[in-house]
Amino acid sequence: MPKHTFYNLPEEKKDTLIDAAKKEFSRVPLFEASISNIVKVAKIPRGSFYQYFEGKEDVFFYLLEKRTEDMNKKFIAILRQNKGDLFKAFLEVFKHLLYDFKNPENRNFFKHTFLNMNHEIEIIFYKMFHENKREDDLTSINAILDKEKLNIENECELPHVMQILKIVTVQNLIQNFAKEISFEKAIEKYELEINLLKNGLYKDKSSYFIE
Amino acid sequence: MPKHTFYNLPEEKKDTLIDAAKKEFSRVPLFEASISNIVKVAKIPRGSFYQYFEGKEDVFFYLLEKRTEDMNKKFIAILRQNKGDLFKAFLEVFKHLLYDFKNPENRNFFKHTFLNMNHEIEIIFYKMFHENKREDDLTSINAILDKEKLNIENECELPHVMQILKIVTVQNLIQNFAKEISFEKAIEKYELEINLLKNGLYKDKSSYFIE
DNA sequence: ACAAATAGGTGACAATATGTCATTTTCAAT
DNA sequence: ATTGAAAATGACATATTGTCACCTATTTGT
């Protein structure tokens, strides 16, 4: 979390700093990013940087969380539009993200983020699909979700379903950045995998005998 | 890949170097590891290190690939033992890995590796579940696999099934390292998710009418 | 209006790591 | 013994990091 001195900064200075940080994280992934570069581009003294942030991770996660919050709102809106159908919602969100990443300003930032997505980054990113405790009950994912369509025996299996959908989604995004495949191919692949998840990977032979 | 000078080294010196590298990568993840530390522990001159390796990534991936090759053999053996049943094989391998990671010497190395598993590391690790081109046809996963039990329409869906199983497995391993849950709880959680994958996340209401 | 107190800004600095390279050593082949 | 190629070495230039002593600006109390 940025220090309070950062939040007290005049908007303009904040923006300059943020822009410089975005530029650096678009150039290279977090682990290669250099504070020296950020302060050089932002034209602020080195000491000031440490006045505002604990280190480069601090700025990075600040940027990432801001974006994730926007995406979270989008996810909830899309889930509601699709009347709580998780699978349709994930597909819509996936398309949305792909579309977002076409924007060159975002593209490299997210490319580096996704190709270096470790557990810490994953946790932040997954918040996109989570309840947002600060919002009121009307936006609660739990309330919107159409659980009737889910093949679960009880509530406690729900987080596992979400988990599976999340990782398949993120994995698909990662592979898009790794292989730079076309928008259409990406959707096709994702849809195929979502359908496998929906219908199950296992063919129970006993079902043949019933027919 | 290590340079040829590394392979020409006498076994003893190689081992000293490898041990020092292992120690460093058990101390911290790749991105925090320092070559200075490795050469200090191995008691070799700095210049020699660069004679043998391109950089720290080079040693790290060398170590990781060696371990992955062993695991690949294990996976193929287990798959054959289970007569090509992918789900049973993945569960067995999962147990096996958990057991392996109990060994303190491995534990921290893999903890740092899993909690910082980016796309590059993932690719290496996933080789564990792949065909090994160098082996003969008898060990071919494709030949062993019982595809009858898989809910796929054609061969080209198979890689997607594998992909889904791989990422769910790796995700479970990552979460074990992140949350340090017990062996039993870990297996229980993994089994639950594998069953969700087998049976599908979607409950088709039309099936009720058939009954 | 003024001094004191508090908060914020600055850049020089020590510490440390990195990759290179000119030089030295080793050793096999003649 | 001589030579030439390969390997070993450690000092070095360069770069980055986080800190700290000092400076400036702003607020507070009288």
Describe it:
Two copies of one chain form a homodimer. With 211 residues, chain A is mostly helical. In chain A, 69% of the residues lie in helices and 0% in strands. The first copy, chain A, folds into two domains: 1-54, Homeodomain-like (Arc Repressor Mutant, subunit A, Orthogonal Bundle), CATH 1.10.10.60; 63-210. At the A-B interface, helix 10 and helix 11 of A face helix 10 and helix 11 of B. The structure holds a DNA duplex (30 and 30 nucleotides).
Q: What's the pLDDT, averaged over the residues of chain A?
A: 93
- Could you say which overall geometry of chain A the principal axes of the C-alpha atoms support? elongated
Name the helix and strand elements of chain A from N-terminus to C-terminus, one letter apiece. HHHHHHHHHHHH
Give the largest interface.
A-B, 38 and 38 residues
Strand content of chain A: under 5%
Number of strand elements of chain A: 0
Helix content of chain A: 55-70%
Structural class of chain A: mainly alpha
Multimer state? homodimer
Count of domains of chain A: 2
Q: Give the distance, in angstroms, between the N- and C-terminal Cα atoms of chain A.
A: 59 Å
Radius of gyration of chain A: 20 Å
Number of separate helices of chain A: 12
Low-confidence parts of chain A lasting 5 or more residues at pLDDT below 50? none
